[in-house]
Task: inverse folding
């Protein structure tokens, strides 16, 4: 992540750094979902991308740093145009 993509190092008074990181990750997930909705791709590809984001959300419940790494990889793939093949679901 670049410094622009990272949460502020100074949380608000009474706010833990974990809460700040969680809020930051939640905002990045929201932005990623919006990007997926805006893509001109097949419904199957969109569903696959959405499932990937839901897995990141599930991981965030247990392991914030791992969720952040997965989301960063997901966004890097989107930025480079690497989209998953549509699944058979």
Result:
């Amino acid at each position: 992540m670049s410094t622009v993509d990272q949460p502020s190092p100074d949380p608000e008074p009474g706010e833990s750094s974990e809460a700040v990181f969680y809020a930051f990750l939640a905002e990045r997930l929201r932005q990623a979902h919006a990007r997926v909705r805006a893509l001109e791709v097949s419904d199957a590809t969109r569903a696959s991308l959405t499932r990937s984001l839901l897995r990141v959300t599930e991981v965030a419940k247990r392991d914030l740093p791992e969720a952040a790494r997965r989301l960063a990889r997901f966004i890097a793939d989107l930025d480079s145009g690497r989209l998953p093949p549509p699944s058979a679901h």
Summary: The radius of gyration is 14 Å.
